[in-house]
Write a structure and sequence with these properties.
- The protein has 213 residues and is mainly α.
- Helices cover 62% and strands 4% of the residues.
- A two-stranded antiparallel ribbon has the order 1-2.
- The radius of gyration is 23 Å and the shape is elongated.
- It starts with a strand and ends with a helix.
Length: 213
Amino acid sequence: MDSGAAGMGGIKIEKLTETNFREWRQRNKKILAVRDLDDMLDEDGNPTDAETRELAVWKRRDTKASAIIGLTLGFEQLEPVSGCETTAKMWSKLQGVFHRKSLMNKMKARREFQTVEMTVGEGMLGYINRVRNLGENVKAMGGELTKIDVAMSALNGLTSKYENLLVALDAKGEDELSLDFVKIRLLQEEWRQADTIPVIKRIGDMALVGAKY
């Protein structure tokens, strides 16, 4: 299994990082809902005055919910919540750490969004989703972004092999550069380049064979 992800009965959840909190939170909520454990996130749900048997059932369910969340945390994220007695307190602590709307966090989130770059070997769909998540982090902290802002950030971080596409898109009006439009064009270009590589290799192989005779 990928060390950067946790498996939940066939459902894969990327471990929590500084850039994927919103998606991580949504996926964990869905997992807990499927397991009928989403009520464990409610801090007022602890049956303190309940009968011993009912409290024991609640504690077992709370332990399961905490374990599910814990499996999607790395060591650095586990440390701050190690002393949390319930799932709800763990959840609240994580939201406080990753969802603060401080000036520094806002600046950091916007800087990461504006300077995102596609890495070598990264697939286009994964890159676009990473840009989208960074944009959602900015909005979650109260920042304002338009669809054009997200599209422009994605285009700005492309590698040099997409230079021709950028020239073609430069002729488009700004109102046409929605993220959905850009996403389609980028995926099409990725597929086109993938289809071109074998042809170039075959031509190169033929040239080498011809050079031998």
